[in-house]
Amino acid sequence: MATLTKPETTPLVTLDDVRAAAIRVQPSIVRTPTLLSRTLSQLTGATVYLKFENLQFTAAYKERGALNKLLQLDEAARARGVIAASAGNHAQGLAYHAARLGIPVTIVMPRHTPSVKVSQTEGHGARIILHGEQVDDALAYARELAAEQGLTIVHPFNDPDVIAGQGTVAIEMLEDVPAIDTFIVPIGGGGLISGCGTVATAQDRAIEVIGVEAELYPSMYNRMNGTALPCHGDTLAEGIAVKEPGSITAAIIADVVDDIVLVSERYLEEAVALLLQIEKTVVEGAGAAGLAAMLAYPERFAGRTVGIPLCGGNIDPRLLANVLLRNLARSGRLARLRIKLQDRPGALYHVAKVFDQEQVNIIEVYHQRIFSTLPAKGLITDIECETRDAAHLDRLMRALEAEGYEVTPVELA
After folding, report:
1. What is the pLDDT of residues 282-298, one digit of tens each?
2. Parallel/antiparallel/unpaired status of strands 105-109 and 127-130
3. Strand locations in 158-235, DSSP E?
4. I need a labelling partner for 161 at 20 to 30 A (CA). Which of 26, 82, 247, 310 fits?
5. DSSP states of 103-125
6. How many CB atoms lie within 10 A of CB 35?
7. Which CATH number, 3.30.70.260, 2.40.110.10, 3.40.50.12780, 3.30.450.40, labels domain 333-409?
8. What is the pTM of this model?
């Protein structure tokens, strides 16, 4: 965590640009609510307001910037069409609004893009081209096609018109909750925080702007702080897993952002789970990054009035289920216990009696006789179980040990 030094520069995007964008896009996007979360406020020690951008039609704020860009194209550019490289929310937002406006749209996606994302984007009327292994490969090819066919590139973040559109998120948040004194905004390419930071720094009072990146992809953190932390790995926050942030956004962030923090996968998982359990809302990993920062650095935000955009809700259902189950395990409500037994009749029965006495539900039982370091007559049994909370699990383990069993919990990463 490092505080950024702000240079004196001519703004690339101004508050007037964002206000003009707000007027343009207002008729065609959802004015999503900004609501107080009493439970998260109690949990974090701050006053927490959430903006539910996951309620946009394509479930992400990206519609705002894409639409602002499209609405400023002249008739000739609209007739030729637009092109973008994206495997995520930008693709769907651009495709949806381009189709609605009658503008032909081409989206170049990496070859390995999940089929569900391809089909969703096609469903909005886009022509899909699969090319390259990474988004950078897709972008290079999109530029080739744009030059050949006279198409307008709509970059997902490195474009002043797109940035101004994303900044409308902050315009609405401050209209709804003027008391916000801190914005916590996810950073991928940097479009959203550039727009929100532009709005925040133009107010007549101090509003702190904090960016959040996944620990596995600290690209903007590196750019701002002169570090060389590695950018790679499988992150839950795939929407902000960007290796090369934008040049335009980097210049704006240096001017309008106060700090950038990094969050681990564990806090991202916890944030996604808490938002579903407490707010009853589905948020993708990138969209939950703001809350993840509050969980990771509670002292940093204690006592502040915090605004967090929940910037997207496009998460694979299977991945979401996995995140929720892992969170239950970390809280002690689900557990796998490894128990050493003697291989004799009734051994499992006697163990199950302890579970019954402690009113713990057994979900799965796994026997391991062969691949074990125990003697031939030894046996390892893994039992997955469901408890009320961590204290209940602890009572179960003490009861098993009192009966002479050697018990080890199987921990999550």
Report:
1. 999 999 999 999 999 99
2. parallel
3. 182-186, 208-214
4. 310
5. --EEEEE-TT--HHHHHHHHHTT
6. 15
7. 3.30.70.260
8. 0.89
